[in-house]
Every structure is written in structure tokens, then in C-alpha cells.
Amino acid sequence: MAWRQLLLVTCFSAAMLLCSVKQKVFVQESDASNFLKKRGKRSPKSREEVTAENRQKLRADELRREYHEEQRNEFENFVEEQNDEQEERNREAIEQWRQWHYDGLYPPYLYNRHHI
């Protein structure tokens, strides 16, 4: 018997919840019929139309900004990686040059040149 009462209470609460949601989601009939009507080219836009257009523009701007930021970050990472590779190649070349020209003295080469 208790499970029937529980089932009845949950069904009743679900029905009440759906009724309250229905009132919030759906617009009144008069507003719905006016919403899709075409307005003349010269008539001023309604406040709802203006806000809807502004929301669309702001969303497009935000998406464009995110896209360009992502592209910029990818390019910066690419450039940083290229610079790191170039620095590594330069460091290896300098190290090889120093090993080849090492004269056995410390510090090597230029500082300990023997004058003749």
C-alpha cells in the first residue's frame, strides 16, 4: 500500500512540475501569432528583434574572437618551437666549433692565445 501512495505522490508532483514548466516555456497565443509576422521594410524593429539581433552579433563576435585567439596561440606555439629548435642547432654548432678548436687550455681559445 505504501508503494502505491509513493507512486501517486511522485506522479502528482511530476504533473505539477510539467504544468509550471509549460507556463514558462510557451508564450501566449497573441505573442506567438505576432512573432512570425513579416514586418514592412520601413517599419521600426521591435525591441525583441533588436535584442535577438544583438545577441546573434555578440555570439558571432565571441566565436570569431575565440577562433582568432586559438589561431594566434597555435602560431605562437609554432614560432616558439621553431625558435627553440634553431637555438638548439646553434648551440650544437657552437659546441662542435669549440671542441674542434680547443687548444687544451682553460678557458679555451681566445683568452689563452700565445703571442709570438
Give a short synopsis of this structure.
The protein is mainly α and 116 residues long.
Features:
single chain, 116 residues, mainly alpha, 73% helix
Topology readout:
Layout: H1 2-25, H2 29-35, H3 47-100
Region (Disordered): 37-57
InterPro entries: UCMA
GO biological process, one term: embryonic skeletal system development
Describe this structure as you would to a colleague:
One of its GO terms (biological process) is embryonic skeletal system development. May be involved in the negative control of osteogenic differentiation of osteochondrogenic precursor cells in peripheral zones of fetal cartilage and at the cartilage-bone interface. It is found in: Secreted, Extracellular space, Extracellular matrix. It is a single chain. 73% of the residues lie in helices and 0% in strands. It contains 3 helices and no strands. The mean pLDDT is 80. The radius of gyration is 37 Å and the shape is elongated. It is an all-alpha fold. The chain has a domain at 52-101.
Poorly predicted runs of 5 or more residues: none
Number of E-state strands:
0
Arithmetic mean pLDDT: 80
Going by helix content, strand content and strand pairing, the class is: mainly alpha
- The amount of helix comes to over 70%
Distance between the termini: 115 Å
**Strand content of the residues, in percent?**
under 5%
Radius of gyration: 37 Å
Largest sheet features: none
Subcellular location: Secreted, Extracellular space, Extracellular matrix
Pfam families: UCMA (PF17085)
Main location: secreted
Protein name: Unique cartilage matrix-associated protein
